[in-house]
Amino acid sequence: MKFLLFIFLTSILTLLKTQQYGSFTDSRDGKTYSTFQVAGYDLFWMAENLSTSKFRNGDNISQARNAAEWRRAGEKKQPAWCYYNFDPTNEGKYGKLYNWFAVNDSRGIAPNGWHIPSINEWENFIAIFKGQLFAGTYMKTSGWDGRDDGTNKSGFSALPGGYCSPFGSSYGVKLDGYWWSYSEKDEQNAWLITMNWNDTGVDIQPGGKKTGFSVRCVKD
Description:
This protein has helices at residues 2-16, 67-75, 91-94, 100-103, 119-128, 135-139; strands spanning 20-25, 32-37, 44-46, 62-63, 80-82, 97-98, 114-115, 161-164, 170-173, 176-184, 189-196, 203-208, 218-219. By secondary structure, the chain is an alpha+beta fold.
């Protein structure tokens, strides 16, 4: 509680500072991600969704190329990723979508030196930028249903990448964004954050483990 109060009292000053931007190259596949430091804090986040197809040890994460493969991976509780609507042209803008079994695999989906944020880390980040009711505006960039309704003052550069249902149907691109946390809720669900095209806020809610959502990483 005291930490969240401190975050709230210092958030206005934080928003007036300039975000620090950089980049990071994942040694697994040579992909370079944009990164940012939260102004006034020792917090470094990726400013793009994860797009790796390998675990940290080099093992491949299975790609689901169609709805049947995606559904089968979820039923077997196997790690998997897919493109939105199974269309590789969506990767450049939105990254890949991963089920929970990929996020939670002991081989590690994040690059060395990075990790998937816990729900507490998400909550602390959101609190810096005026809390759940308003943080969406500070986290979004343009591209939400054709509207430039985000200031991106946080540097997070959120885009509406949608999700893949447990049955392999894709929904929500250009309208909604969903990002896994590393925190499990129960046997069927884990916590995630969501944003919507016509809402200034950020929701924290459980999501089914067989569903495909976007992934962001924070530096260790």
